[in-house]
Amino acid sequence: MKFTYNKKIDEKCWSRYDRFAMMHKNIWGRDLKGKGIIQVSRANFEIEVGDIIRAYKEIFKIRVFIKGYIVTTPYSMIDDDGVFSKNKSAVFYSIYNQPVWTVMAHEIFHIFFEKYTERDIPNYEESKEYFTVILNDIFGKNVSQGYPNHQNIRKQVFNKWRKTRSIDACISVL
Hints:
- It is built from 7 helices and 5 strands, in the order E-H-E-H-E-E-E-H-H-H-H-H.
- It is α/β, with parallel strands linked by helices.
């Protein structure tokens, strides 16, 4: 997957981040800590995400197409403007987030989850974060710690996943 920098996309992500910060005052229990300002005029990199994609195709049984962009927001995110699109999806990778592999696993999971549910589940915005707990089982390590306010529901989702290995059974937890 190739990642490039685009100033307009970076500004769009900052605007979305600022709206979220104004509305919630925290990120589901985690403080909204600003990062230092970095001026980026041009950047690109490429990473191998084949193993991640193959793992998620087994869970979701769907195909997705993803573009990658580099952003300077404190957090990485997906193209999550509230409008569902079957074909369009993007990962916005924050230059502050490490390690890259873990961040990509988390964000790509969101894209598969969005395409699979078509955002038609209760409280989609937070629900997409609950389900990243499944990553810890898939990859056999702590890939996704989740947000403080989500820990109880993540435990329920994880327990259902361990018993059923079914994303639909996990969604029924909601």
